[in-house]
From TrEMBL:
GO terms, molecular function: ATP binding; protein serine/threonine kinase activity
Taxonomic lineage: Eukaryota, Metazoa, Ecdysozoa, Nematoda, Chromadorea
Name of this chain's protein: non-specific serine/threonine protein kinase
Protein kinase domain boundaries: 1-405
Keyword tags: ATP-binding, Kinase, Nucleotide-binding, Serine/threonine-protein kinase, Transferase
Superkingdom of the source species: Eukaryota
Source species: Acrobeloides nanus
């Protein structure tokens, strides 16, 4: 067995008709939902073999067992890669993952489960392959982004106005996993008590009969009141690996775009920089928000959540960290004595007994002191790990930055009269 993924186990098999020719055969787990199986087969069928995406040769069914015959792709374990990677190797890894994402995003496709184990890398052959498309989806732009956010809107409020219509036809959008088309289907006529976007809808709360329900008791407090406990839970797509989920997934935003793949790629790149995998180990989404808030700034999360109509509270405020200092500390496994000292960083970062300050205000200066090749990949990393998805860099723009830097190196290191360009090796 070569390994296993979210939806199956992978075996190395040899062709009977052509001895010596090997393939990877993935057996789908019997408990897998049919829609996930159909999604993976369709994605590999339509896009396999292009832009670092795993190639599929066939798919067949034997009674209740489903098999996918894929390209045999020997690869290095990510745990081995992170221990000895170089700056140039990180840049190539970033380029090739972004190349695959750029292809998918231009096709309006979201992978949703970008992580090291789903992006195979063969160091000897310099080959890459993106795998595991069971959670992927077609991106359909929502009208939610075009609506104006009400002046007062938060997830803790139950202030509603009943619809003037007695019954409203309720539609739900379904994405067909086979052809990727979105269809609208009537579920059933329901009474809508709260038509405004972002508000919870509930048939159990009657605002007119009970004026006490107009405002909850826990707004702005670190607690949950009885009113909020009665509200229906917001149903959003949270598919993906917990430690790689983007902020928009963690705050349960209904507006999810291909930018969530860029965040997951950024966390993967951060692991390469720090030579630590995994870099985050949250027990749940709330713990993930706190961990990310410390690294990328709690106020960035609060502002983003407020824009989506969500009141977000953190145990304490933190401006975020200087990523250059943070990476050096994680990679070298010790803390340098940067000035000035910071009690806040001492309390928040384990092992920081010298009170080394990692606050983000020094990040620009830290980046300016790096070599040119390190500067460009740190700028790319920051674009990937921007909290607000609309301000986050796209795969195309970040890839262009990395490619432009390499083009500059070729020009810089060209020797007149030579028969070829001399590239800088990092």
């Amino acid at each position: 067995m070569l390994g296993y993924g979210t939806f199956g186990q992978v075996y190395k098999v040899e062709s009977k008709s052509k001895p010596g020719q090997f393939f990877a055969m993935k057996e789908i787990l019997r408990g897998s939902l049919p829609k996930y199986v159909a999604t993976e087969i369709r994605m590999l069928r339509d896009h396999g073999g292009k832009s670092n995406i795993m190639k599929i040769y066939m798919a067949y069914r034997d009674k209740e067992r489903i098999f996918l015959v894929l390209d045999y792709f020997p690869h290095d374990p990510f745990t081995d890669i992170v221990q000895s990677t170089t700056t140039s190797e990180i840049r190539e890894y970033m380029k090739n993952l972004l190349l695959a994402l750029d292809y998918l995003h231009k096709k309006k496709l979201i992978h949703r489960d970008i992580k090291p184990s789903n992006f195979l890398y063969n160091r000897k052959l310099k080959r890459y392959a993106l795998i595991d498309f069971g959670l992927s989806q077609v991106y359909v732009e929502s009208n939610m982004a075009k609506r104006e956010v009400p002046a007062r809107r938060n997830v803790f409020s139950t202030e509603t106005e009943p619809s003037t219509s007695k019954e409203n036809v309720h539609y739900k959008a379904f994405t067909n996993p086979v052809n990727g088309k979105t269809e609208r289907r009537i579920i059933k006529p329901i009474r809508v008590l709260n038509p405004a976007p972002g508000y919870a809808q509930s048939q159990n709360l009657d605002v007119k009969k009970n004026p006490m329900l107009k405002e909850c008791e826990c707004l702005g407090r670190p607690q949950v009141c009885g009113i909020c406990l009665k509200r229906q839970k917001l149903r959003v797509n949270k598919a993906g690996t917990p430690s790689f989920r983007a902020p928009e997934i963690l705050i349960m935003s209904t507006e999810q775009t291909p930018a969530l793949d860029i965040w997951s790629a950024g966390i993967t790149f951060l692991s390469l920089f720090c030579r630590k995998h995994p870099i985050f180990r949250p027990n749940d989404d709330y713990e993930a928000l706190v961990q990310l808030g410390v690294i990328f700034g709690t106020q960035n999360f609060v502002d983003f959540a407020a824009e989506r109509g969500i009141s977000l509270l953190f145990p304490r405020k933190h401006p975020g960290v200087d990523l250059v200092k943070f990476v050096k500390a994680m990679r070298e496994d010790h803390f340098e004595d940067y000035e000035p000292s910071c009690k806040e960083c001492k309390n928040l970062i384990y092992g920081n007994s010298n009170a080394t300050c990692f606050c983000s205000h020094s990040e620009e200066n830290s980046i300016s002191e790096l070599h040119d090749d390190e500067k460009v990949i740190f700028h790319a990393l920051r674009k990937c790990l921007t909290v607000h998805p609309k301000k986050r860099g796209s795969a195309q723009s970040i890839l262009a930055d990395l490619t432009f830097f390499e083009a500059q190196k070729v020009i810089k290191y060209y020797t007149p009269g030579a028969d070829r360009y001399h590239l800088l090796t990092c």
